[in-house]
Amino acid sequence: MQPEQLKDVLDRARQETSKVIIGQEEVIERALIAIFTGNHALVEGVPGIAKTLLVRTLARVLGAEFNRIQFTPDLMPADITGTNVFNLQRNEFSLIKGPIFTSFLLADEINRAPAKTQSALLQAMQERAVTIDRETHPLPANFTVFATQNPIEYEGTYPLPEAQKDRFMLKITMKAPARDHELALAQRTMTKQAPEALLADGQIRAVIAPDELFALREQLAAITLREELIGYLVDIVRATRQHESVLVGAGPRATQALIMASRASAALAGRDFVTPDDIKTMAVPVLEHRLILRPEFEIEGLSVLEVIQQILQQIAVPR
Ligand SMILES: Nc1ncnc2c1ncn2[C@@H]1O[C@H](COP(=O)(O)OP(=O)(O)OP(=O)(O)O)[C@@H](O)[C@H]1O
Ligand SMILES: [Mg+2]
Q: Looking at 213-222, 258-267, 303-312, which range is the least confident one?
């Protein structure tokens, strides 16, 4: 597959998704970057900003086998993974598989469930396998989790543990729509072109064949990342651990994530090589959820975003 073909497929996915999701171009782009690199993403935003709708639309566009788990305070780990049930007729235990056995999983409102339940997702996300009663069951090779959550100030009941957050390649932040987009949404709301109606009508189609997705992922590995840029990228991640206001910096998984995301960003632009701008743009969603500031700096009103911007300004771009 050539770079142009790669861009074609990505554009098709982008276009089909934007039939339902009005505006939010950057969000759609980042979601596709996670999907096309075979990674999990965390979608964050205030209530009613179309987080759930976005993930449902992506599932349709990808034609992936799809399940949704609504996280609630009383959700138990077994509600996610499944349970062994005694079968009287056959006189043996048999596994009733939980909703995690799918290709594309929407973990909706993930911070509404306690840590124990959230952690049932942990092993699955990293190992693409689930252990039930000491027996390990594999998940599909392309198993992908998209979790949604409201910002901490809104829910905050059970914030995700750090180890869990690190497993998400990107945090995708959805911001309030621009006026013209909100106007378009208002106008479409009562018509057959309402976002939900399009999805329900079956007007949104799968635009990617499963084998195409695999070919695409292989193609991403062929996108050139110059030696100096690898150094640049590593220095950015390492700087998060040395910054004076940071308590916990990003780990090596962030380095891997930034490499993949930068390559996918190049592919979306139709290039077969990574530029410093790809790295800078992707550093924000790759790093944001992995950093914890020292409390004294947080009280002063410093944000993780500002720290990332400072780091990007400090590190010289290789020529
Ligand atoms: N940019 C947008 N494009 C299309 N529809 C939108 C957009 N923004 C909001 N909506 C509409 O807002 C409604 C809420 O969407 P959704 O349920 O996905 O929100 P949510 O972010 O998951 O909210 P919650 O945090 O409460 O679960 C939907 O009816 C959707 O049609
Ligand atoms: Mg929702």
A: 213-222
User: Which residue puts its alpha carbon closest to atom 10 of ligand 1?
Assistant: 50
pTM, entire model: 0.92
SS (H, E, C) the chain: CCHHHHHHHHHHHHHHHHHHCCCCHHHHHHHHHHHHCCCCEEEECCCCCCHHHHHHHHHHHHCCCEEEEECCCCCCHHHHHEEEEEECCCCEEEEEECCCCCCEEEEECHHHCCHHHHCHHHHHHHHCEEEECCEEEECCCCCEEEEEECCCCCCCCCCCCHHHHHCCCEEEECCCCCHHHHHHHHHHHCCCCCHHHHHHCCCCCCCCCHHHHHHHHHHHHCCECCHHHHHHHHHHHHHHHHCCCEEECCCHHHHHHHHHHHHHHHHHCCCCECCHHHHHHHHHHHHHHHCEECHHHHHCCCCHHHHHHHHHHHCCCCC
Which one of the ligands is nearest to 181 CA? 1
Give the pLDDT confidence of 131-152 residue by residue, as tens digits.
998 899 999 988 999 999 988 7
Which CATH number is 223-319's, of 3.40.1410.10, 2.60.40.10, 1.10.8.80, 1.10.260.40? 1.10.8.80
Ligand 1 atom closest to Cα of residue 24: 1
The ligand placed nearest to the CA atom of residue 46 is 1
Across 247-259, average pLDDT: 94
Place domain 3-75+101-207 in its CATH homologous superfamily: P-loop containing nucleotide triphosphate hydrolases (3.40.50.300)
Question: Which-ligand-closest: CA of 174?
Answer: 1
- Domain range summary for the chain, segments of one domain joined by +: 3-75+101-207, 223-319
How do residues 178-213 score in pLDDT, each as one tens digit? 999 999 999 998 888 888 888 888 889 898 877 787
- 51 ligand 1 Cβ < 6 A: yes
CA of 46 to the centre of ligand 1 (A): 10
63 Cα: distance to centroid of ligand 2 (angstroms):
21
- Which residues neighbour ligand 2 (ion) by CB within 5 Å? 52
Q: pLDDT-derived band of residue 164, with 50, 70 and 90 as boundaries? A: confident
